[in-house]
Write a structure and sequence with these properties.
Blueprint lengths: L14 E4 L6 H10 L4 E5 L39 E4 L11 H21 L3 E4 L9 H11 L6 E8 L33 H5 L6 H13 L1 H12 L6 E7 L6 H5 L6 E7 L4 E2 L5 E2 L2 H12 L3 E5 L7 H12 L14
Parallel strand pairs: 1-2, 1-10, 2-3, 3-4, 4-5, 5-6, 6-7, 7-10
Antiparallel strand pairs: 8-9
Length: about 325
Amino acid sequence: MPLGKRTDLGDAKFSGVQVSFTRDIVKKAESELLCGFDFIVAPLTRPDYRPPAKCDGSETQAPASFSRNDVLYINSSQWANHIVGAVSTWVDPDSPSPKLRRSSTLQIQQELGWAAHLGLQAVLMPPPPHPGASFSYSQLIAQHLHNLTNMAVWVTIPLGSKATEANLDPPPCRDSDSLTFPSLSTVPLLVPAAIIRGSGSGSSEEDSGSNDLAAADPAWSAWNQIRFQTDHHALLGVALELGSILPPATQLAKWRAEPVKAVLIPTCVFATNKRGFPVLPKAHQEFLVEMFRLGVQVIVVPRGGEDGVEDLGMGVKESSSSSSFSSFSFSSLP
């Protein structure tokens, strides 16, 4: 589902940028579009907004109306094609805390309803807090998708890990560091045993196999659980958030058969070459080339401020329109 409208770069893929909450979203959108982006991803509510709850904590109140200062607000449908709404990142409807479960459920329901009211084409869900066990999270998405809405839901799935999490520095980029993607026919379509069995009981061997699969490829397993619980709805898509360290090529190849709508690239993934330009590691380049060929959109996610992201956006956009993918953002690392 392409967003925005552009005629300056031919068949270049669409690129967006994630922005912080602002009450003047139209001004922010205009600014980012002038910088070369085609759309923005903006929070649907203030970061500190929480739905009201009864003092006894037994039940949530009936949904209260948002105030204009609390939410993303646009007064013209012309901006609906340039804005993707982002659901609050603090929500956890599968939390062991009853209070957090209730407030998260109400927050997601309210935000999805508000985004549909605005006529947005898509909303971006935060990563499931409990990958592979996000049953309430999936149920809320399914309820929205089956409410006769035309708004797509993109589920954020982190792909790979941060260099600090793996206790590694990002690997240096060499010309030989290219990924060889296996044929789809060689990539097994593995379905967790719990999904195949439904709610019935199974053997401990089956449970162990399902757990082994989730441990081996947690990103795909988390997505697989959500799409099964939402009945493979046509408006459900995945947004892959790239880490500094990507998983093996056999795991990356699985995503070619999935409805990937966007790839999120945090600015911390970029490095700087000898000429001072932002660049991506070779493995990331190869994966993005694959995604570009499938028409996937790219979203730049600022980390530590939004200054300078326009350079990254233009680099990604120009790269997607070039058959050689040789613009500065895909140049080799020193």
